[in-house]
Each structure stands twice: as structure tokens, then as C-alpha cells.
Amino acid sequence: MPSTRSTLITITAVLSLVILWIWFSADTKPEQLSEILARQNKLTQSNSELLKHINSLENKLIEQKTIQQEYEFRLLELEQLVNYPPVSSLEADIIEVDKEPLKPVKTTIKPPTLQEKLVSAGIPLDTIQRINQRIGENRLARLELRDQAIREDWIDTPEYIEKQQQLPGPTEGLREEFGDQTYDQYLYASGRPNRVIVREVFSGSAAESAGIEPGDILLSYASEFIYTMSDLQQATTEGYSGEAVLLEILRDKLPFSTSVPRGPLGISMTITRKEPE
């Protein structure tokens, strides 16, 4: 725009000089001079209007540039807010103080206690306390017997072994007092075996005739749940020898029932842990 204005001003000045030269020229006729003056006035008027239009355009351009600069400044502010969000004075103090990089914190997951496992299994807290009390009493009785045998110097005698066998084991009596389900949950939660697995079936045995296979899990014998090998050995000696009893097993995660005569099954066994259903 400035160059255009300068050009127009220059043209107007040149025309004025030309008119003055013509004015003072002896060869110029009056009518020619009038025509030249009229054209010069017309051109001057046209140039004046053009200059006004140029000035108007320049003012609008300045306004547009001002608006553009305001938008650019606002955009810069927004970018600063995104990249560096404002913080309160307290947060700023914390940032000032905490200049050292954070060190990784080692978290250790604490395994659940036996009580927590039993509670999660749905056993009431008062029942858990009674179970712990019974187990504590059974263990304390064995400690007292040992101390007595050492004090009286008969720790290595058959008398000590006999009296020790007469005492209940740590979990003995729990099944009778609290029931099969609670007893099963306690065995599993405490890490004790609670299932009996058939390892081998003897040829010609009652187990072979009943279709029992290695890998079967024994669930119950004569409607009595089996949790340990001693449970099965005890069950086979009860009742009448040879009477038909129901044997329930788990094979490939599916229940299976068969009938066997009461007495030795003719199998070798092993034990395992299985979460009660």
C-alpha cells in the first residue's frame, strides 16, 4: 500500500510539472490548455479518491493485524497452560522442596493368615477361635507329657510312646465338634492334605471289580467323607464285613458312584490338597 500511494503522488506531481511547462510554452493554445487542466483536475480527483480508498484499506489491514496478534497471544497463553498448568502456592512450595527424584518403593504383599483364610471361606469368627483353642489344647497336652517324661527320666521308654499315642493329634476332634464342612475348610486353609487319590489298583481286588481307576479321588465311603488315608482305613473296618457300601469318587472333575463290599479295597493311595466346593 505505501508504494502505491507514493506512485500516485509521484504521478500527480509529474502531471503538475507537465501542466506548468505547457502553461509557459508559447505553442500551447488556450483550448488545449483548458482540456489539459480538465484532465489534470479529473486525474487529481481520481487519485484523491484512490488515496482515500487506500487509506481505508490500510486502516482495515491494521485492525486485522491487531486482532491476529491478540489471537496469537491468546493461543500462546493456552499453550503455556497446557504444558505448564498453574499450581497453588502450597503445591509450588512442595515442588520447590521435592527436587530429588522419587525412589521406587518396594511393596511386599503379605500372605493372608490362617484366620483370614477361614473367614473368607465363610467360617464364623467365634468358630475359628474355638478351633484354635482346641488345637492349642491338643498341642499343649503333648508338650506337658514330654516335659514330664524328661523330668522323670522315662522319655526313651515304651511307656512314653504308649502315652503319646493315647493323646489326640493336633486336629483330632475338630471333625466331630465342628462338622465335615468346617473341618474340610480348615484342612485346606492350613495347608494340610484333605483328599485321597488312588495311585494303583491291585489285580483281582474289590476296587478293580468296582471299576476304580488310578487317579480317582475318593470322596466318601459308606456315606462317610474321606479326608485322609486313616479315614478310609477306619471306615473299611466298621460295620459288617462284605456288606455292600456306596463309594463316591471324583474322576476327571466329574462325580462317579459305585458299590463295593465293605473291607479292603485293594489299592495303594496318596494324598493331596483340593479346595472344597
Describe the model.
This protein is α+β, with helices and mostly antiparallel strands. The chain has three domains: 2-81, no CATH class; 114-189, no CATH class; 195-272, PDZ domain (Pdz3 Domain). Helix content is 56%, strand content 13%. The chain has helices at 2-23, 30-83, 89-97, 114-120, 125-151, 158-166, 174-178, 180-189, 206-209, 229-236; strands at 195-201, 217-221, 224-225, 244-251, 254-261, 267-272. Strands 1, 2, 3, 4, 5 and 6 form a six-stranded antiparallel sheet that branches. A hairpin with a 2-residue loop joins β2 (217-221) and β3 (224-225). α1 (2-23) packs antiparallel against α2 (30-83). The longest helix has 54 residues, at 30-83. The protein is elongated and about 155 Å long.
Mean pLDDT: 79
Q: How many distinct domains?
A: 3
Assembly state here? single chain
Number of helices: 10
What structural category characterises the helix and strand content? alpha+beta
Helix content: 55-70%
- How big is the Rg? 54 Å
Write the layout of secondary structure elements.
Layout lengths: L1 H22 L6 H54 L5 H9 L16 H7 L4 H27 L6 H9 L7 H5 L1 H10 L5 E7 L4 H4 L7 E5 L2 E2 L3 H8 L7 E8 L2 E8 L5 E6 L5
Antiparallel strand pairs: 1-2, 1-6, 2-3, 2-4, 4-5
Helix pairs in contact: 1-2
Features:
277 residues; alpha+beta; Pdz3 Domain; 56% helix; 13% strand
Short description:
The protein has 277 residues and is of the alpha+beta class. It contains ten helices and six strands, in the order H-H-H-H-H-H-H-H-E-H-E-E-H-E-E-E. It folds into three domains: 80 residues, no CATH class; 76 residues, no CATH class; 78 residues, Pdz3 Domain.
